[in-house]
Amino acid sequence: MLGGTVGMALAASGLSAGRAWGDTPLHEDPFTLGVASGDPWPDGVVLWTRLAPQPLAPDGSGGMPPYAVDVQWEVARDDRFRSVVCRGRTRAVPELAHSVHVEVSGLQPDRHYYYRFRAGRVLSPVGRTRTAPPPHSRPRELDFAFVSCQAWFEGFYTAYRHLAEEDVDLVLHLGDYIYENAIDAMGGVRNVPVAAELRPEPMNLVQYRNRHALHRFDPDLIAAHQAHPFALVWDDHEVEDNWARDKSKADTEPDQDPAVFRERAAAAFQAYYEHLPLRLPNKPNGFEARMYRRLRYGRMATFHILDTRLFRDDQPCGDGIKSGCDERLTPGRTILGPEQEQWLHSGLGRSDTTWNMISQQIPVTQVDTDPGPGQAFVMDFWDGYVDARRRLFKELTDRSVNNPVVLTGDMHRHLAADLKQNFDDPDSPTLGVEFVGSSISTTKDGMDLDPSGVKLLAANEHIKFTNFQRGYVHCSLTRDSCRADFKVLPYVTTPGAPISTRTSYVTEAGRPGLQEA
């Protein structure tokens, strides 16, 4: 069974002290964390791996030596590498945990390619990727999936095994790739012994590297990355729950000092880059980083990928769920920061694609949690930044933005909603739609309709659907419609669950609003 495979692999790799590379046989596999590709352009992609024969070595080295190692790479049209189109050599350096980020160019648009790496005499697994279509082409269809929230200790990554077998052009990861929470001695529901040094909440680079390796060292997640290109952006748990710019969550940890928190966040940013297929512009420089960017898929879609953490104002009224919080209404409050906000607004206004997919972390739609006559809102959501949402909606209207669709993670639930010009007026114009995807594993098994979901439907007429099972969303775009299939699993606390489509919603081009398919 899959769970047994994970358990044996963890027990064998790094849960005790690792050996130095010089003492490791050359045939030992340095590709234990797999391979990945990301951010497709029409002429290329970024290819990733990390050399780590002992990925959970307590010192964060992955079992590698303190010096650079040559790595060869090649890209082919076929998985047997009979038709190699390009190859090269790079160096994996200890300063970046012996990770490799190769930005390949000169490829043909809208085509599958296969890639692999070689370190010494060892070949990596073969990955498959796909380039984006030409910028001004008109694809007939575009299929992609979006995922988020994968607490390793709260569930198995069975959803990724199913996603690896789907036919999609791209996978968007909208945040919470790791969780920073302390882990118990048996790894939560996975029931795998976890070494004492890997359990505490990470605070420094070594600890964040090992937390990434722990989440990354999973055959289902490796399979999904091996099968599809990803485009990723962080949320909060990559650093700490509900962080905002240089402010830590209120607790008793030493990072309450902003200077200390910036050091902690810089370590988290670096480990994030080291473990994922990101391009050089996304490489952090200490606490400075730019994760927001765009991907274009012909004339079909533009993906506007946002960072709602690094540049936001602090959550109003002390965070949490609050009613009667006037601070959330303060003019000028920002969740994106001035530079990113202007970048988003101008990019939406210039876009000539049929669909504008706004890919980000927390719900844009109003989420009233009180089904009674009053209202209560989550201060961490866009509800805590009402003027920022008003400015976005004004731009959507003033610039006549083509078919905006917001894609969101974070909530650990599926949700489909109309974006209303005035959420308190059901007859207000609908400006676009939002699809929220559930978690891969966070909050364990869940259920179809939980008590909180019942309250959300009762309090928010614009929310058309919610579900509290684990899963992901598969979207299909044509020139006429955007369809979202909400995929669910009956359980994740044990491996091997089947997957099904709970429901599907469609929005038509030129006619904003949701219809059940």
Q: What can you tell me about this protein's structure?
A:
- The chain is α+β, with helices and mostly antiparallel strands and 517 residues long.
- Helix content is 18%, strand content 28%.
- The protein has helices at residues 2-12, 158-164, 205-216, 219-227, 258-274, 338-350, 386-398, 451-459; strands at residues 35-41, 44-50, 69-76, 84-92, 99-104, 112-119, 122-123, 127-130, 142-147, 170-173, 229-232, 293-297, 301-305, 321-322, 355-360, 377-378, 404-408, 414-420, 430-436, 446-447, 463-477, 481-489, 500-508, 511-516.
- The strands form three sheets. It has a 17-stranded mixed beta sheet that branches.
- Strand 3 and strand 4 (84-92) form a beta hairpin.
- Helix 2 (158-164) packs parallel to helix 4 (219-227) and helix 3 packs parallel to helix 5.
- It is globular, with a radius of gyration of 22 Å.
- Mean pLDDT is 94; it is low at 1-26.
Distance between the termini: 36 Å
Helix content: 10-25%
State the shape. globular
Arithmetic mean pLDDT: 94
Stretches where pLDDT is under 50 for at least 5 consecutive residues are 1-26
Total DSSP helices? 8
Strand content: 25-35%
Please outline the major beta sheet.
Answer: 17 strands, mixed
Structural class designation: alpha+beta
